[in-house]
Each structure stands twice: as C-alpha cells, then as structure tokens.
C-alpha cells in the first residue's frame, strides 16, 4: 500500500469504530535475506507481511484484534470481531484511554530508497564473495545477509496520527576452520554502506588466528571485551530496568533509582534520532524521547508504562529501540596494547541466560574467539568456557573504554575490566 | 475453509509448473489465535488474531527461492510466485546449486489433530473466570508480589502441495495453560510455575491440568522457595522429574541430533553439534537404560502435524537405543547428506512466512520397564537434590557443556526428601550426564512438556515440540549456585 492508502485505511477504521477509545496500527514488512552455511546457500527468501492491530476500549475494558485480512471492504467485519472481543472482556482496573492528543513524533530519517528496492543480486553477490573467500582459505562460511523494509502507520481516536518507515541492511558472518572461528555482525540503513568485502576478509583472518586453542588456566585475569561481547550483555540490563517490576520487588533495581548501581565509567542512554535511529512512537502511540538510564553508574531513569507512571508520579518512558553505552577513545587493538600483565580478550558471548533475576546473575558461554593477552599482545587462543557473572559487578570494574561502534541497535565500546578470577 | 485453501495451493502449483521450476511447493495457512492474560488479578490483555498467508518455495538449478505474502489476495499471490522464482534465479547465477532432495512417495490426505472440545467455542467469560479464580488463589497470600495467569489457543489449518503430486492438509488445535507466581521475602524473589505447556488438544487439556489446584501449588511452593535455604554445592546425585528433564533433553539430545547442525548450516547462529555423521549407530551417548524415542505420531505432541513442511508423514524412531546414538533426524534436503535414503519428516516452518528448516521432533526418554517409583530412586540417594520444572538453561554451541536450573528443589539426605531449597543449578557435559543415568521410574510417573518457543534459524523462527520423561536419577553431578 502507498503511504496515502495506509492513512486512508487507518482513518476509515477510526471513523467506523463505534467505541470511544481506538488505537489502530497498520504495518508492512518486506524481509529479503540469503542464508548460507557449509559454503552453500541454504535459504534465499523474500517475504512480505501486512498486518493490522486494532485495540478498542469502552472506558472500562479493552481488547485487541489482529488480522492479515486487510482491505476497505473488510473493515466492518474487522470491527465486529474486535467488538465481540471487547464485549466479553472483564473491566480493567488499570484502564488507560489512548495517549493524549498532540503527541509530537520526532522525524526519524532511517530510509534509503535504493535499499528499499531489495535487489536480490546484492545479497547473493555478497554471499558468493564470502563463500569464495572461505574456500580459498579452507574454511566454511555461514551466516545471513539481507534487507528489511518496514512501514508503520498508527492512529488514535484522540487524534494522533503517526508514520514511520525504515530500511535496514545487515550481514552476520561466521568463518570456521573446524577448531577456530570468528564472527562479525554489521548493519546500516543503506546496503551500499555495508563494508561487506572488508568484513569478509577480516573475519577470515581472525579465524586463522583462532587455531590451536589451549585450555584456560585458572587464575586472575583482566577482561578485554570486544564491542560484540559488550553488546551481548547490555540487553539484559535493559530488560531488567522496568520501573514497575522493580517497584514490585522483582529485580535488582528495586528501590535503587538515584543510587549507584555499577561503576563510574558505565553510562547507558537512548537517543531517538542520533547516530542510531530509533522509533518515533511506541505501540501505544506515545512519542519517543531521548533518555539517560544509567549515568556514571547511577540509576537515573527506568522505563515505565503509562498506568504505573501515573500511579507512581513518574513520566511514562520507553526505550526507543536504541541503546548507547558511552565510550572513550581507541580501538580494541589499542586497548590490548594498553594492558600490562595478563588479560583475556573476548570476541562474543553465547546462550546468556538469567540464573537469578533478583540478584541479576547471568550464565553464558564464550564463542568464536577467546585469547590470552600478555603485556599488550595476543599470546594464543583459549578454548571456550562457561562463565557465571553479575553484569553490574562486572561493569563496576571498567578501567578503560574504547570508541563506541554500532552493533545492531546498540552502540557499544570495547572495554577493559579489572582483574577477575576465572576457571 | 480447507477446500478453499487446497484450491489456492493447486492453482499455485499449476503456476509453478508453467514456470518450469525444477521443484516447487506451497504452504497455505489460516491460523486463528486467542490469548487471555491476567497480570495479578487484572485482565491485562485479551487478543484474537486472524492470520493467513501463503509461502512458496522453488528450486531452480539446485538453488532455493522462497517468497511469502500475508492474505489470500490474487494479485499479491502472483507477485509472490514471481519473487520466489526471481530470488532462486539470482542465487543460481551467483553460486553453484547443490540442493538434492531425497526421493519420497507423493502423499495425499487430511489429518485432524485430536480436539474433543473446541476451545474457541468455550465462552470467553468461562475462560476469564478460570483465570480470575486462579489469580485470586495465587494472591491470597501477601507474600505473592506478582503473577501471570494465561490461556492460549490456536487453530491452525494448513495445506501443503508440491509439484511431485503431494497435496495434504491438517487441522490442528493447540491449547496451553500457564501460571506463574512470584513471591518476595527478605529482599529475595523466587517463582513457581505451571509448566506442562501446550498440547494438540482442546479445552479438555485445560481441564486435565486443573489450574485451580495448580494455583494453590504455585503459591505455596513459591513461598516455600523464597523462604528456603540456598542449595548446597558439590558433587552429588540428582533426581529429576519429566518437566525438568524435558528441557535438559531438548538442549543436550534434541539439538545435537539435528542434521543441519552436523552439516554446519547453523554454525553462524544456533551452532553446531559435537556429533559426526559417522557416529550414527555406534557412539555411546548414555547409559544402557537410556532410550530416546522420536515420535511425530504422538497424538498430543505439538510437532505431530500429519505431514511436515516437505510433505513427509510423521514417523517414530529411536534416536538413542540402549545408550547408543542411532541416527540424526532429517529433512528431504539433508537426508542424503547424513547417509539416509529418506527424510525423517523434521522439516517445519514457524508459519507461512518462514522458510522451513530442520526442527526437533517430539521425543521422550522411554520410561523404565520395571515397576520403580520416584521414592524408590530417592531412597538410594545419600546426598542429592530432587528437581521439578525448568529454570535457567544454557549450553555451548556444540552442545556439550551445559548448566541448568529448575523450578522447585528438594534436598535429599539419606534416602529422604528433607526440605525445600532455592538457587540450585547443575552443570555437566552431555555424554557424561546421560551416562550417569542409573534409574528411570516407570510410565506411571511420565510427565511431558509441550514447548512452543524453541528458537533457531535466521531470521529466528520459533518451533514447537513435546518432550517427556519419567522421574530419573543421575549420579555424581556437579551442583552449585550460578554466580559462584
């Protein structure tokens, strides 16, 4: 549908719904990807989905109806189905009407017209290059590359109307030599900005250096986390931040707003329209805002939905699909050179899970590269091992931050963390 | 509805044949989904979804192309056929096509999953009353800080057809109840959940589970747990129930025995496996009493779809027999590559919009053949822990080194359960763990878990499968607290 057709459809829903409170969201997504493994294409995909999500409320109760059956003639039956759900819903003591009129949605430019064309030869060409490099180096390439093209139109019965569209191009690549491997994830708004060729070569070189791994010797090490390793940990902090869950005693952040929760060098924020591009509104049509969550280790803000915000006298706030960990200067290589004594360099973590939500302890594995570093240089690769850490304690020990780089929707720096006992 | 969907499929197959693809298949799906969630004693969300769409997969010069569209709009369907062929051609011009499917007999027919009482015909008020009553029971103690009470139903009508003459359909109803109680005490929080999961069944599954009784149990055991001492550390014996073992076997048996992992097709995401193709039929995986049966004919099993997304019928086979690894599961594309002539029917997509990949079948640990109770197993444990339900879980990408928690823990001393515990985790390596199994109770103590959220593939797809076990005993396992 064109932008105008999507607006007309949402307007018609809002007009024909016979209840006071209406929230309608129409989305389109085209996702075109090529997946590869064992130096062959295993999937080559071009999908398209159009969905309507309609929330109706009568002042006491609300219900949601979602459908793929979308055309103007279907609107009466869509509204009937949603009404039937509403009539059987029980009253909601936390009922909230749609967001107030006059939401000002930031303009987020996250669109590249050429990328939106989703030329399949771009993707298969990138995969062919990865496979060729892998074969030349006696490796196996696996991964996925593709583009996502998303459009959202949202309307509320209070008079808000929002539009957002985005493109995203990405490559996630593993080069594997049996014992040794390396991995990289890159993404950008435009396909042409993806450094595909350089990434393929770099990952192949890194996999080469991961051969002949030795067991981890138990002991005390400084930890050097590459940006991907930091990006693997950060979402667990974001998921634990919710204000209501903290107030109900369920998380490590209970009663800690305004308090020091981790180290001075840890600052986490979100920008709607910074280097990373977020979303201009959330599922409810609430306008997105920039926010600082943790500043120099102090818990400043917590995401909070509207009902709980009103009850606890806060402003409603949500993570606008971007997170940024403040960095310093220098690359991972610079950080390695700066470390005296013994350290371990981590490329990536895998299968991270909560062990205990309240004490905020996590477990996980290392993957695709752990290296022993001595006096500023890599000595040899180390076999993967399991760790059990509390990330707030870990980030309490940050000694040096490098320059932040983009990893998906997170901006993260490499970092050096003080000595930790391992093994 | 099914006949109309078969009509769409037949038309698309005809279009694919006209376009001269080497192979083509189509999946037409219509999915109705109802979910009702209470957060504490409040209806937090009630949602109905009406999903439908078409996925088209083709082979051109040995390269796949796949395209999908939501809805059944004729114009969109024609473009979708075109897109599937276009991407396949693009792939075959850039790389060598290598796809070779196992030869399978064309199938025709229809399969209705078991459903005695259609949950979509149960009045919604009755469902809400059940959830409200459950929530009231859970919150009858002030120590309960939060809870979720949840019902989820899905009716999935699906048609699969291919250019080799297969045209099959299924009508499947899935039902899932869930309860989670969170107790807060002395600056700690612990939870207890109903975890039997989903079944291909109707409202009768909700009645069988007895959410009211479970609400009492979840409340009491969450409170018991939050007040309990922390678990011991060290090497000791474990006695594990079916809902705990369901997740352990899923991660340490189900994933390692997937054919796409041994081929390296998941190396970038879900990972590989420690197994080799040559390990089939001789590698010792567990003790001699360990038998794992894969079964996509298990009536209530959430992977029993009649036919998979290759059009291959559901099958039953030994994955591990008398402790020896027998064979990888497979799909048509991988069967020949793992030295099998035919697919085991493990090919499934999350929905019409996803490319189907190898997914775990339903599978379970075969119960002991002699009359043995859980108490018999516990009576022979000097020092250990009895664990029910699933908790924290993590395993390395080759599926060797794992760490699991649980949902309820009981200390065992001198052959008796003596007190509840909290914060217990166990660590082991896959073959060591299954090799340490020295007791499995009989089928009276079998308990299953229907999982709906197994994540794999890129873009990630959720898949569903059912696992189960009778209460079983494992000797000399490392037990400890996670953060230590």
Question: How would you characterize this protein structure?
Answer:
The complex is a heterodimer of chains A (423) and B (484). Chain A folds into 2 domains: 3-208, 2-Layer Sandwich (PmbA/TldD fold); 219-422, no CATH class. Chain A contains 10 helices and 21 strands. With 423 residues, chain A is α+β, with helices and mostly antiparallel strands. In chain A, the strands form 4 sheets. A 6-stranded antiparallel sheet of chain A has the order 3-2-1-4-5-6. A 6-stranded mixed sheet of chain A has the order 16-15-12-7-21-18. In chain B, helix 1 (2-19) crosses helix 2 and helix 3 runs parallel beside helix 5 (211-227). Chains A and B meet through strand 1, strand 2, strand 3, helix 2 and helix 4 of A and strand 2, strand 3, helix 2, helix 3 and strand 7 of B.
Keywords summarizing the entry:
heterodimer; A: 423 residues; alpha+beta; PmbA/TldD fold; 2 domains; 24% helix; B: alpha+beta; 9-stranded mixed beta sheet; 25 strands; 38% strand
Computed over alpha carbons, the radius of gyration of chain A is: 24 Å
Supply the number of helical segments of chain B.
10
Low-confidence stretches of chain B: none
Level-2 CATH architecture of the largest domain in chain A: 2-Layer Sandwich
Uncertain stretches of chain A: none
Q: Largest inter-chain interface?
A: A-B, 83 and 80 residues
Sheet with most strands of chain B: 9 strands, mixed
Q: What's the short story on this structure?
A:
The complex is a heterodimer of chains A (423) and B (484). Chain A is α+β, with helices and mostly antiparallel strands. Chain A is built from ten helices and 21 strands.
Topology:
The complex is a heterodimer of chains A (423) and B (484).
Chain A: H1 3-16, E1 21-37, E2 40-57, E3 62-67, H2 75-88, H3 113-116, H4 120-136, E4 140-156, E5 161-176, E6 181-188, H5 196-208, E7 219-225, H6 227-240, H7 243-247, E8 268-270, E9 291-295, E10 298-299, H8 306-311, E11 323-325, H9 332-338, E12 342-346, E13 349-356, E14 361-366, E15 370-374, E16 377-381, E17 386-389, H10 391-396, E18 398-401, E19 405-407, E20 410-412, E21 415-422
Parallel strand pairs in A: 7-12, 11-20
Antiparallel strand pairs in A: 1-2, 1-4, 2-3, 4-5, 5-6, 7-21, 8-9, 8-11, 9-10, 12-15, 13-14, 14-17, 15-16, 18-21, 19-20
Chain B: H1 2-19, E1 23-39, E2 42-60, E3 63-70, H2 74-94, E4 108-112, H3 124-138, E5 144-162, E6 167-185, E7 188-194, E8 199-200, H4 203-209, H5 211-227, E9 234-240, H6 242-254, H7 259-263, E10 292-295, E11 316-321, E12 324-325, H8 332-335, E13 347-348, E14 357-358, E15 363-365, H9 374-379, E16 383-388, E17 393-395, E18 401-404, E19 408-413, E20 416-421, E21 425-429, H10 430-435, E22 437-440, E23 446-456, E24 461-470, E25 472-480
Parallel strand pairs in B: 4-6, 9-16, 15-24
Antiparallel strand pairs in B: 1-2, 1-5, 2-3, 5-6, 6-7, 6-8, 9-25, 10-11, 10-15, 11-12, 13-14, 16-19, 17-18, 18-21, 19-20, 21-25, 22-25, 23-24
Helix pairs in contact in B: 1-2, 3-5
């Amino acid at each position: 549908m064109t932008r105008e057709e999507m607006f007309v459809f949402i307007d018609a829903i809002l007009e024909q719904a016979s209840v006071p409170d209406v929230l309608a969201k129409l989305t389109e997504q085209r996702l075109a990807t090529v997946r590869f493994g064992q130096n062959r294409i295993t999937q080559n995909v071009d999908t398209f989905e159009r969905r309507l999500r309609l929330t109706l409320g009568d002042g006491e109760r609300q219900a949601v109806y979602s459908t793929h059956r979308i055309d103007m003639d279907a609107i009466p039956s869509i509204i009937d189905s949603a009404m039937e759900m509403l009539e059987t819903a029980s009253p909601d003591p936390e009922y909230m009407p749609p967001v107030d009129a006059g939401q000002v949605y930031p303009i987020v430019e996250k669109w590249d017209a050429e990328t939106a064309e989703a030329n399949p030869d771009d993707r298969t060409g990138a995969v062919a290059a990865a496979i060729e490099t892998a074969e030349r180096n006696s490796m196996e390439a696996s991964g996925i590359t593709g583009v996502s093209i998303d459009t959202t139109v949202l309307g509320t019965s209070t008079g808000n109307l929002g539009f957002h569209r985005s493109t995203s191009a990405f490559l996630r690549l593993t080069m594997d030599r049996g014992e040794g491997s390396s991995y990289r994830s890159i993404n950008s708004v435009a396909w042409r900005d993806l450094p595909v060729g350089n990434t393929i070569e770099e990952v192949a070189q890194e996999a080469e250096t991961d051969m002949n791994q030795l067991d981890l010797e138990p002991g005390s090490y400084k930890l050097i986390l590459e940006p991907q390793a930091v990006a693997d940990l950060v979402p667990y902090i974001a998921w634990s931040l919710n204000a209501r869950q903290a107030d109900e005693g369920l998380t490590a952040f209970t009663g800690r707003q305004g308090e020091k929760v981790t180290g001075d060098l840890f600052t986490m924020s979100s920008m709607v329209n910074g280097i990373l591009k977020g979303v201009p509104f959330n599922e409810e049509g609430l306008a997105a805002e920039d926010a600082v969550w943790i500043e120099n280790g102090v818990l400043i803000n917590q995401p909070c939905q509207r009902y709980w915000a009103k009850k606890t006298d806060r402003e409603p706030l949500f993570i606008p699909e971007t997170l940024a960990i403040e960095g310093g200067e220098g690359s991972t290589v610079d950080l390695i050179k700066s470390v005296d004594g013994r350290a371990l360099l981590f490329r990536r973590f895998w299968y991270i899970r909560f062990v205990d939500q309240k004490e905020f302890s996590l477990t996980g594995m290392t993957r695709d590269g752990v290296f022993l570093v001595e006096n500023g240089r890599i000595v040899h690769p180390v076999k993967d091992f399991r760790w059990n850490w509390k990330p707030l304690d870990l980030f309490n020990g940050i000694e040096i931050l490098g320059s932040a780089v983009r990893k998906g929707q997170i901006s993260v720096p490499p970092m050096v963390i003080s000595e930790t006992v391992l093994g | 509805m099914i006949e109309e969907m078969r009509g769409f499929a037949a038309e698309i197959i005809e279009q694919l044949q006209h376009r001269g693809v080497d192979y083509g298949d189509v999946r037409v799906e219509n999915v109705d989904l109802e979910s009702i969630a209470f957060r504490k004693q409040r209806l937090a969300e009630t949602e109905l979804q009406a999903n439908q769409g078409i996925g088209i997969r083709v082979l051109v010069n040995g390269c796949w192309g796949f395209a999908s569209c939501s809805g059944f709009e004729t114009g969109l369907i024609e473009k979708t056929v075109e897109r599937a062929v276009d991407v396949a051609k693009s792939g075959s011009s850039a790389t060598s096509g290598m796809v070779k499917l196992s030869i399978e007999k064309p199938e025709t027919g229809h399969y209705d999953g078991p459903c005695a009482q259609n949950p979509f015909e149960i009045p919604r008020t009755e469902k809400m009353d059940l959830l409200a009553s459950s929530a009231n029971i859970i919150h009858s103690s002030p120590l309960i800080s939060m809870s979720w009470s949840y019902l989820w139903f899905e009716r999935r009508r699906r048609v699969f057809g291919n250019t080799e003459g297969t045209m099959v359909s299924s009508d499947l109803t899935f039902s899932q109840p869930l309860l989670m109680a969170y107790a807060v005490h002395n600056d700690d929080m612990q939870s207890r959940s109903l975890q039997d999961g989903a079944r291909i069944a109707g409202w009768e599954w909700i009645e069988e589970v007895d959410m009211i009784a479970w609400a009492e149990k979840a409340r009491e055991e969450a409170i018991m747990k939050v007040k309990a001492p922390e678990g011991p550390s060290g090497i000791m014996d474990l006695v594990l129930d079916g809902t705990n073992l369901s997740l352990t076997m899923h991660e340490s048996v189900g994933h390692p025995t997937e054919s796409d992992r041994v081929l390296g097709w998941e190396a970038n995401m879900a990972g590989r496996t420690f197994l080799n193709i040559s390990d089939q039929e001789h590698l010792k995986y567990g003790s001699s009493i360990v038998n794992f049966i894969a079964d996509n004919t298990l009536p209530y099993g959430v992977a029993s779809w009649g036919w998979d997304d290759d059009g291959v019928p559901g099958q039953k086979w030994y994955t591990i027999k008398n402790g020896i690894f027998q064979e990888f599961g497979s799909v048509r594309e991988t069967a020949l590559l793992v030295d099998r002539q035919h697919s085991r029917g493990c090919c499934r997509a999350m929905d019409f919009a996803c490319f189907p990949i190898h997914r775990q079948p339903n599978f379970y640990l075969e119960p002991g053949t002699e009359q043995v109770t859980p108490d018999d197993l516990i009576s022979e444990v000097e020092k250990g822990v009895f664990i029910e339900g699933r908790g924290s879980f993590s395993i390395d990408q080759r599926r060797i080194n794992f760490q699991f928690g649980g949902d309820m823990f009981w200390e065992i001393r001198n052959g008796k359960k003596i007190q509840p515990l909290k914060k217990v985790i166990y660590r082991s390596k896959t073959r060591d763990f299954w090799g340490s199994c020295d007791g499995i109770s009989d089928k009276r103590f079998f308990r299953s878990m229907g999982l709906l959220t197994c994540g794999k593939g890129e873009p990630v797809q959720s898949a569903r499968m059912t696992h189960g076990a009778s209460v079983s005993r494992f000797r000399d396992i490392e037990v400890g607290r996670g953060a230590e």
